[in-house]
Amino acid sequence: MRRPTAAGNWKMNGLRENFDDIFLIDAASKHVNCDVILCVPDTLIKEMSERTNNIFTGSQNCHINKSGAFTGDISAEMIKDAGATHVIVGHSERRVNYNENNHQIREKANIALENKLKAIVCIGETLTERKTGVTLDIVKRQLVDSLPLEISGETIIVAYEPVWAIGTGLTPSIEQIKEVHDFIRIELENNFGAKIGQSINILYGGSMNAKNVDEISAIKNVDGGLVGGASLKADSFIPIINALSLD
Known about the structure:
By secondary structure, this protein is α/β, with parallel strands linked by helices. The chain is built from eleven helices and eight strands.
């Protein structure tokens, strides 16, 4: 059985003064049957990794190169050295705002794995793609082209994030979420074999909150959530963690 994952993506939010929330989340995660990850700004990674005991520390991006003249970027090796265990690659905001493509995302995932970071690989369709009926085509292309050629449940997490539901308060129907998650599971099995395909967690990442987490997490092949705004505060993230935890 796959152990659920509650991953928080703080995006460009969070200062050292916000550690009170991190400590509350850490304490609440001590006895849950769920992996809890906070992907914080890189400025908080070192301190968070040193001052928490029950949650994993993640970054939100890494460069495809190990080092070099890339002003303002950060390498997977640097992230690992700072204390991170996970890194998000391919988030829709990176795909849209920085024109990142599937090839680049695969390279980022590859270098993350080389540095013993578990990669959270994001895929998902835009509203236009949803309306024109090509969601599964887009998801398949992103999945196949963004993932490394050799993966396992120990090295990769897949996050399905319908772009039109991120930060908008909009949520796909239960049927829509189920259709895509079932499709992703089948494609993982088809491309990597049944054993590996069944070992990989598939997270839902589109405006998950305390009000909808029970219904969404009950869907087969939803193994947790990649949570944005609701992960910034302990009082909104802890209920999600508890809901995702196995009994």
